[in-house]
Amino acid sequence: MEIIRSGRVHYLAPQLDTAAAATAVMGFSTRHEGVSRPPYNSLNLGTNTDDSPHNVEGNRSILARTFGLTQDRLVTVRQNHGNDILVIDAPNDDLAHFLEIEADAIITNQPGIMIGVTVADCVPVLLLDPVKRVIGAVHAGWQGTAAQIALQAVQGMVRLFDSRPADIRAAIGPCIGPCCYEVDQPVREGFAANDVSPWDAVAESRAPGKWQLDMALANRMQLEAAGVAGTSIKTASQCVCCHKELYFSYRRDAGETGRQMGFITLKEA
User: Fold this and answer.
1) Which SUPFAM superfamilies does this one have (predicted)?
2) Angle at 64 between CA 103 and CA 259, to 5 degrees
Protein backbone atom coordinates (compact mmCIF):
# COMPACT_ATOMS: atom_id res chain seq x y z
CA MET A 1 0.00 0.00 0.00
CA GLU A 2 1.07 3.59 -0.55
CA ILE A 3 -0.03 6.98 0.74
CA ILE A 4 -1.79 9.03 -1.92
CA ARG A 5 -2.79 12.67 -1.79
CA SER A 6 -6.07 13.43 -3.54
CA GLY A 7 -7.40 16.93 -3.07
CA ARG A 8 -6.96 17.68 0.64
CA VAL A 9 -6.99 14.05 1.78
CA HIS A 10 -3.98 11.88 2.46
CA TYR A 11 -4.96 8.22 2.46
CA LEU A 12 -3.34 4.83 2.32
CA ALA A 13 -4.42 3.01 -0.84
CA PRO A 14 -4.04 -0.67 -1.68
CA GLN A 15 -2.69 -1.49 -5.12
CA LEU A 16 -5.61 -2.78 -7.19
CA ASP A 17 -5.67 -4.83 -10.36
CA THR A 18 -7.30 -3.34 -13.45
CA ALA A 19 -10.76 -4.81 -12.85
CA ALA A 20 -10.86 -3.71 -9.24
CA ALA A 21 -9.56 -0.21 -9.98
CA ALA A 22 -12.23 0.24 -12.63
CA THR A 23 -14.95 -0.76 -10.18
CA ALA A 24 -14.25 1.09 -6.93
CA VAL A 25 -12.11 3.54 -5.00
CA MET A 26 -10.95 2.45 -1.57
CA GLY A 27 -8.51 3.58 1.07
CA PHE A 28 -7.68 4.31 4.69
CA SER A 29 -7.49 7.93 5.81
CA THR A 30 -4.59 9.35 7.79
CA ARG A 31 -5.04 12.02 10.44
CA HIS A 32 -3.90 14.89 8.16
CA GLU A 33 -5.57 17.76 6.28
CA GLY A 34 -8.72 18.24 8.35
CA VAL A 35 -10.06 21.08 10.50
CA SER A 36 -10.07 19.54 14.00
CA ARG A 37 -7.83 20.93 16.74
CA PRO A 38 -5.62 18.97 19.19
CA PRO A 39 -5.94 16.30 20.41
CA TYR A 40 -8.19 15.46 17.44
CA ASN A 41 -5.96 17.10 14.86
CA SER A 42 -6.78 17.18 12.18
CA LEU A 43 -8.88 14.85 9.97
CA ASN A 44 -10.96 13.33 12.76
CA LEU A 45 -13.83 11.41 11.12
CA GLY A 46 -15.33 9.90 14.28
CA THR A 47 -18.72 11.05 15.53
CA ASN A 48 -18.19 9.20 18.83
CA THR A 49 -15.53 11.57 20.14
CA ASP A 50 -15.56 14.79 22.17
CA ASP A 51 -14.45 16.76 19.14
CA SER A 52 -16.77 19.51 17.92
CA PRO A 53 -19.53 17.97 15.78
CA HIS A 54 -19.06 20.85 13.35
CA ASN A 55 -15.40 19.88 12.89
CA VAL A 56 -16.29 16.24 12.30
CA GLU A 57 -18.95 17.21 9.77
CA GLY A 58 -16.42 19.44 8.03
CA ASN A 59 -13.89 16.62 7.90
CA ARG A 60 -16.43 14.18 6.52
CA SER A 61 -17.39 16.71 3.90
CA ILE A 62 -13.72 17.07 2.92
CA LEU A 63 -13.43 13.29 2.49
CA ALA A 64 -16.63 12.92 0.47
CA ARG A 65 -15.94 15.90 -1.79
CA THR A 66 -12.46 14.58 -2.53
CA PHE A 67 -14.13 11.70 -4.35
CA GLY A 68 -16.87 13.71 -6.03
CA LEU A 69 -19.60 13.06 -3.48
CA THR A 70 -21.55 15.19 -1.02
CA GLN A 71 -21.38 14.50 2.70
CA ASP A 72 -24.90 13.04 2.74
CA ARG A 73 -23.64 10.21 0.48
CA LEU A 74 -21.15 9.05 3.13
CA VAL A 75 -22.68 6.16 5.10
CA THR A 76 -21.41 5.01 8.46
CA VAL A 77 -23.18 3.20 11.30
CA ARG A 78 -23.19 3.22 15.09
CA GLN A 79 -20.43 0.68 15.74
CA ASN A 80 -20.88 -1.45 18.86
CA HIS A 81 -18.19 -4.16 18.63
CA GLY A 82 -20.63 -6.83 17.50
CA ASN A 83 -21.16 -8.73 14.26
CA ASP A 84 -24.30 -7.17 12.80
CA ILE A 85 -24.15 -6.14 9.14
CA LEU A 86 -26.07 -3.36 7.41
CA VAL A 87 -27.11 -4.30 3.87
CA ILE A 88 -27.99 -1.59 1.35
CA ASP A 89 -29.39 -3.27 -1.76
CA ALA A 90 -31.63 -0.61 -3.27
CA PRO A 91 -31.35 3.07 -4.22
CA ASN A 92 -31.99 5.36 -1.28
CA ASP A 93 -32.38 9.12 -1.44
CA ASP A 94 -32.12 9.58 2.32
CA LEU A 95 -29.10 7.87 3.86
CA ALA A 96 -29.06 9.83 7.13
CA HIS A 97 -31.08 7.26 9.08
CA PHE A 98 -28.34 4.67 8.60
CA LEU A 99 -26.12 6.69 10.97
CA GLU A 100 -28.23 5.47 13.92
CA ILE A 101 -28.22 1.78 12.99
CA GLU A 102 -26.09 -0.38 15.27
CA ALA A 103 -23.79 -2.54 13.15
CA ASP A 104 -20.11 -3.15 12.52
CA ALA A 105 -20.11 -3.82 8.81
CA ILE A 106 -21.83 -2.50 5.69
CA ILE A 107 -22.23 -4.26 2.35
CA THR A 108 -23.87 -2.78 -0.71
CA ASN A 109 -24.24 -3.01 -4.47
CA GLN A 110 -25.28 0.63 -4.81
CA PRO A 111 -22.97 3.04 -6.68
CA GLY A 112 -22.63 6.68 -5.80
CA ILE A 113 -22.35 6.24 -2.05
CA MET A 114 -19.30 5.91 0.16
CA ILE A 115 -19.43 3.39 2.99
CA GLY A 116 -16.95 3.53 5.82
CA VAL A 117 -15.94 2.37 9.27
CA THR A 118 -14.10 4.50 11.83
CA VAL A 119 -11.20 3.14 13.88
CA ALA A 120 -8.47 4.20 16.28
CA ASP A 121 -6.83 0.80 16.97
CA CYS A 122 -9.40 -1.64 15.60
CA VAL A 123 -9.04 -3.30 12.21
CA PRO A 124 -10.71 -1.74 9.17
CA VAL A 125 -11.36 -4.28 6.41
CA LEU A 126 -12.54 -3.33 2.92
CA LEU A 127 -14.07 -5.82 0.49
CA LEU A 128 -14.66 -5.60 -3.25
CA ASP A 129 -16.21 -7.98 -5.74
CA PRO A 130 -15.62 -6.39 -9.18
CA VAL A 131 -17.62 -9.12 -10.93
CA LYS A 132 -20.93 -8.71 -9.10
CA ARG A 133 -20.08 -5.08 -8.24
CA VAL A 134 -20.45 -5.37 -4.48
CA ILE A 135 -18.43 -3.62 -1.77
CA GLY A 136 -18.08 -3.97 1.98
CA ALA A 137 -16.57 -2.14 4.94
CA VAL A 138 -15.90 -3.96 8.20
CA HIS A 139 -14.98 -2.73 11.70
CA ALA A 140 -13.22 -5.46 13.67
CA GLY A 141 -12.10 -4.82 17.23
CA TRP A 142 -11.11 -7.82 19.28
CA GLN A 143 -14.76 -8.62 20.01
CA GLY A 144 -15.76 -8.34 16.36
CA THR A 145 -12.74 -10.38 15.36
CA ALA A 146 -13.68 -13.03 17.93
CA ALA A 147 -17.22 -12.99 16.50
CA GLN A 148 -15.75 -13.52 12.99
CA ILE A 149 -17.30 -10.43 11.47
CA ALA A 150 -14.91 -10.36 8.49
CA LEU A 151 -15.81 -13.95 7.61
CA GLN A 152 -19.52 -13.18 8.03
CA ALA A 153 -19.27 -10.12 5.78
CA VAL A 154 -17.82 -12.27 2.99
CA GLN A 155 -20.53 -14.85 3.55
CA GLY A 156 -23.13 -12.08 3.37
CA MET A 157 -21.79 -10.97 -0.01
CA VAL A 158 -22.00 -14.57 -1.21
CA ARG A 159 -25.48 -15.21 0.16
CA LEU A 160 -27.14 -11.90 -0.73
CA PHE A 161 -25.34 -10.85 -3.91
CA ASP A 162 -24.11 -14.16 -5.38
CA SER A 163 -20.46 -13.18 -5.00
CA ARG A 164 -17.82 -15.85 -5.34
CA PRO A 165 -15.13 -15.66 -2.63
CA ALA A 166 -12.50 -16.25 -5.32
CA ASP A 167 -13.55 -12.96 -6.97
CA ILE A 168 -13.35 -10.87 -3.81
CA ARG A 169 -10.44 -8.53 -3.16
CA ALA A 170 -9.76 -7.42 0.42
CA ALA A 171 -7.67 -4.75 2.08
CA ILE A 172 -6.80 -4.78 5.77
CA GLY A 173 -5.94 -1.28 6.93
CA PRO A 174 -3.67 0.16 9.62
CA CYS A 175 -4.53 -1.01 13.12
CA ILE A 176 -2.79 -1.59 16.41
CA GLY A 177 -0.04 -4.17 15.94
CA PRO A 178 1.04 -7.04 18.18
CA CYS A 179 3.99 -4.87 19.23
CA CYS A 180 1.60 -2.64 21.18
CA TYR A 181 -1.53 -4.72 21.78
CA GLU A 182 -1.29 -6.68 25.01
CA VAL A 183 -4.45 -8.57 25.96
CA ASP A 184 -5.47 -10.82 28.84
CA GLN A 185 -7.41 -14.00 29.56
CA PRO A 186 -10.94 -12.72 28.76
CA VAL A 187 -9.82 -11.92 25.21
CA ARG A 188 -8.35 -15.40 24.78
CA GLU A 189 -11.57 -16.91 26.12
CA GLY A 190 -13.58 -14.79 23.68
CA PHE A 191 -11.62 -16.23 20.77
CA ALA A 192 -11.93 -19.79 22.08
CA ALA A 193 -15.68 -19.46 22.63
CA ASN A 194 -16.24 -18.65 18.96
CA ASP A 195 -13.79 -21.19 17.52
CA VAL A 196 -11.87 -18.56 15.56
CA SER A 197 -8.29 -18.61 14.31
CA PRO A 198 -5.95 -20.82 16.37
CA TRP A 199 -4.87 -18.62 19.26
CA ASP A 200 -1.23 -19.65 19.02
CA ALA A 201 -1.16 -18.48 15.40
CA VAL A 202 -2.27 -14.92 16.19
CA ALA A 203 -1.02 -14.30 19.75
CA GLU A 204 2.35 -14.63 21.44
CA SER A 205 2.64 -15.10 25.19
CA ARG A 206 5.20 -12.80 26.82
CA ALA A 207 4.06 -13.00 30.43
CA PRO A 208 1.72 -15.24 32.46
CA GLY A 209 -1.85 -14.46 31.45
CA LYS A 210 -0.77 -11.86 28.88
CA TRP A 211 -0.53 -12.09 25.09
CA GLN A 212 0.47 -9.83 22.21
CA LEU A 213 -2.45 -10.16 19.78
CA ASP A 214 -2.08 -9.74 16.00
CA MET A 215 -5.59 -8.69 14.96
CA ALA A 216 -4.63 -8.00 11.34
CA LEU A 217 -3.44 -11.59 11.00
CA ALA A 218 -6.54 -12.95 12.74
CA ASN A 219 -8.78 -11.14 10.25
CA ARG A 220 -6.64 -12.23 7.33
CA MET A 221 -7.06 -15.85 8.43
CA GLN A 222 -10.83 -15.36 8.58
CA LEU A 223 -10.91 -13.96 5.05
CA GLU A 224 -8.90 -16.92 3.79
CA ALA A 225 -11.19 -19.31 5.69
CA ALA A 226 -14.13 -17.66 3.87
CA GLY A 227 -12.48 -18.49 0.55
CA VAL A 228 -10.78 -15.20 -0.33
CA ALA A 229 -7.44 -15.95 -2.00
CA GLY A 230 -4.40 -14.98 -0.01
CA THR A 231 -2.98 -13.21 -3.05
CA SER A 232 -6.14 -11.05 -3.16
CA ILE A 233 -5.67 -9.72 0.38
CA LYS A 234 -3.56 -6.59 0.89
CA THR A 235 -2.45 -5.80 4.42
CA ALA A 236 -1.05 -2.52 5.73
CA SER A 237 2.17 -3.00 7.65
CA GLN A 238 1.85 0.00 9.97
CA CYS A 239 0.89 -0.08 13.64
CA VAL A 240 -1.26 2.96 14.42
CA CYS A 241 0.03 3.08 17.99
CA CYS A 242 3.63 3.36 16.76
CA HIS A 243 2.90 6.02 14.13
CA LYS A 244 1.45 9.04 15.92
CA GLU A 245 2.48 11.24 13.00
CA LEU A 246 0.01 9.40 10.73
CA TYR A 247 -2.74 7.79 12.78
CA PHE A 248 -4.96 8.11 15.82
CA SER A 249 -4.66 5.41 18.51
CA TYR A 250 -7.12 4.97 21.36
CA ARG A 251 -4.70 2.99 23.49
CA ARG A 252 -1.70 5.26 22.94
CA ASP A 253 -3.69 8.43 23.62
CA ALA A 254 -5.68 7.04 26.57
CA GLY A 255 -8.99 7.48 24.77
CA GLU A 256 -8.64 11.18 23.97
CA THR A 257 -8.11 10.90 20.24
CA GLY A 258 -9.79 11.04 16.84
CA ARG A 259 -10.74 8.36 14.35
CA GLN A 260 -9.48 7.51 10.89
CA MET A 261 -11.73 5.77 8.38
CA GLY A 262 -11.60 2.84 6.04
CA PHE A 263 -13.76 3.89 3.10
CA ILE A 264 -14.86 2.47 -0.24
CA THR A 265 -17.17 3.69 -2.97
CA LEU A 266 -18.55 1.83 -5.98
CA LYS A 267 -18.12 3.65 -9.26
CA GLU A 268 -20.99 4.03 -11.68
CA ALA A 269 -21.10 1.18 -14.20
Assistant:
1) CNF1/YfiH-like putative cysteine hydrolases (SSF64438)
2) 50
d(CA 97, CA 111): 18
Q: Which amino acid would we find at residue 20?
A: A
Burial (CB count within 10 angstroms: exposed 0-12, middle 13-18, buried 19+), residue 230: exposed
Residue pair 174/260 in contact (Cβ under 8 Å)? The answer is: yes
Residue extents of the structural domains in the chain: 2-175+230-266
Q: In one letter, which amino acid is 225?
A: A
Q: pLDDT of 86-133, one tens digit each?
A: 999 999 888 888 888 999 999 999 999 999 999 999 999 999 999 999
Q: Express the helix, strand and coil content of the chain in percent, nearest 5 each.
A: 30, 30, 45
Contacts of residue 172, defined as CB under 8 A and 6 or more positions apart, other chains included, come to: 123, 124, 125, 216, 219, 220, 223, 233, 234, 235, 236
User: How far apart (Å, rounded) are the C-alpha atoms in residues 56 and 247?
Assistant: 16
Distance CA 96, CA 33 (A): 25
Please tell me whether the peptide bond between 39 and the residue prior to it is cis, using omega within 30 degrees of 0.
yes
The fold of the 2-175+230-266 domain, in CATH, is: CNF1/YfiH-like putative cysteine hydrolases (3.60.140)
- Decide if 9 contacts 33 (C-beta within 8 A): yes
Q: Catalogue the E-assigned strands of the chain.
A: 2-6, 9-13, 24-29, 74-75, 85-88, 105-108, 114-119, 123-129, 134-140, 169-172, 182-183, 203-207, 210-213, 233-235, 260-266
